[in-house]
Design brief:
31% of the residues lie in helices and 25% in strands. With 426 residues, the protein is of the alpha/beta class. Helix 4 (106-113) packs parallel to helix 6 (171-182). The longest helix has 14 residues, at 240-253. It is globular, with a radius of gyration of 21 Å.
Length: 426
């Protein structure tokens, strides 16, 4: 079922999770590939292992709005894009407001139609997470950027390679500028580029399309512009955030799970932090086994760009640390509105102090089910985790925010023994 904005998740805790779960394809790779596929002026691109999540559905709607023919076979996780009929440079507000990834479609529109217009910029509410560096990068490549109200117009002009420097190694910024540079004549160098595994997957995908990109994973990427990109086939890598969320579900319930498709090497520092807490990992080919059968130990976490501790896992590990034996310290350095979870966990009985830019979690605390609010995707999944170990029933809403990043979370958790349902909230 497609869980819409008026839904909630009901979770009744208590059962240790057991069994096998399939990790979905990476949201943060698939969205970029859907946008990049529009760079091909003829033929059809086939993407496999595409997660059936709300953000992907929004990306499909955007691609269709600008004239691409897109077929998403959700059951098979296969997406087919024919962008030969691209005909509109306008990314409409009703979709763009709900989907921050709209800016990813700008490079294809610039190269194919000569301009791009974004009517509204949306996504997660995460404080001053602005997109200036995308637009500054487009301008450095020769585009002109004009902002009026909540509408941004970008004209390609005479685009050409340039030296680009990112103030912070944003992975969305890195991928977007790689896409823009891939068909800009001359050579582009992107300095302080992001190192995430998803960036490397997107580079591999663009390489199959004919792009000339080197230096992925070094922080210093060189792109030599080509005149044409062609369709290709590609299998999207597994989602390391989805995998880590299930690993934490095993940890918080004291269970044992087999994660099919998960790659422990993609966890970065999160792997070592979870092991310090007492979570055990064992890799067996394409299967990652996770279990926790001892008391959880407290943790110190500072979020930082990959391979550091992922900001997307900060909320889930805050929930997990509520069950650790002692005080845990968590410091968020990437986004400035990522402590909204504190108040929701407090409603469930957690004891957490916000001290400037860090939080101190006092554990272990027994959590009690109640009604809580998901402020964004990551607090949403963190509250589902809290519900899995809480006494009684936890109601997490709106469900839509969780569905933006995790496919069929109720179905996959139920198959592992969790008591969770998605319902319309009236």
């Amino acid at each position: 079922m497609t869980v819409g904005p008026e839904t909630c998740y009901r979770v009744r805790g208590g059962a240790p999770l057991q069994g096998t779960v399939f990790v979905q394809g990476a949201k943060n790779a698939a969205l970029k590939m859907i946008a990049a596929s529009l760079l091909a002026a003829e033929g059809r691109t086939v993407l496999r292992n595409v997660p059936p999540i709300e953000d992907v559905r929004r990306a499909v709607e955007l691609a269709q709005a600008v004239g691409a023919v897109v077929k998403f076979h959700e059951a098979e996780r296969i997406l087919v894009v024919d962008a030969s009929g691209l005909n509109s440079p306008v990314l409409p507000a009703e979709i763009a407001r709900r989907f921050r990834g709209s800016v990813l479609f700008v490079p294809a529109l610039l190269h194919r139609l000569g301009e791009a217009v974004i009517e509204g910029v949306g996504g997660c509410n995460l404080g001053s997470r602005n997109l200036d560096f995308h637009y500054r990068g487009f301008a450095r490549l020769g585009a002109t950027v004009d902002e009026a109200g909540d509408k941004i117009s970008i004209k390609a002009g005479k685009m050409q390679g340039a030296h680009l420097y990112l103030d912070t190694p944003s992975h969305t910024g890195t991928e977007n500028l790689i896409m823009a540079a891939s068909m800009a004549p001359g050579t582009t160098v992107i300095d302080n580029a992001a190192l995430e595994p998803e960036v490397l997957d997107v580079i591999e995908f663009l390489g199959k399309m004919g792009a000339q990109i080197s230096g992925g994973g070094t922080g210093f990427i060189t792109v030599r512009g080509v005149g044409k990109l062609t369709p290709t086939e590609h299998t999207v890598m597994a989602d390391r955030i989805d995998a880590a969320a299930f690993a934490m579900a095993a940890a918080i319930t004291g269970g044992e799970l087999s994660l099919v498709g998960a790659n422990i090497d993609h966890f970065g520092v999160a792997r070592w932090k979870l092991e310090q807490m007492g979570v055990e990992f064992a890799s067996n080919g394409a299967v990652l086994q996770v279990r926790r059968d001892r008391p959880l130990r407290p943790i110190n976490v500072i979020t930082s760009p990959y391979p550091g501790f992922a900001t997307d896992l900060q909320s889930p590990i805050m929930t997990l640390s509520c069950q650790a034996d002692g005080m845990s310290y968590i410091r968020e350095t990437i986004y400035d509105s990522r402590y909204t979870l504190v108040g929701e966990l407090a409603k469930m009985g957690a004891k957490i102090d916000v001290d400037g830019d860090k939080v101190v979690v006092h554990g272990p605390r027994s959590l009690r089910g109640t009604k809580v609010e998901a402020h964004d995707l990551r607090t949403g999944i963190a509250l589902v985790l809290a519900g899995l170990c809480a006494e009684g029933e936890t109601v997490v809403s709106p469900g839509y925010l969780i569905d933006r990043g995790h496919a069929d979370i109720a179905g996959r958790l139920s198959a592992l023994g969790a008591d969770i349902t998605a319902e319309e909230s009236g």
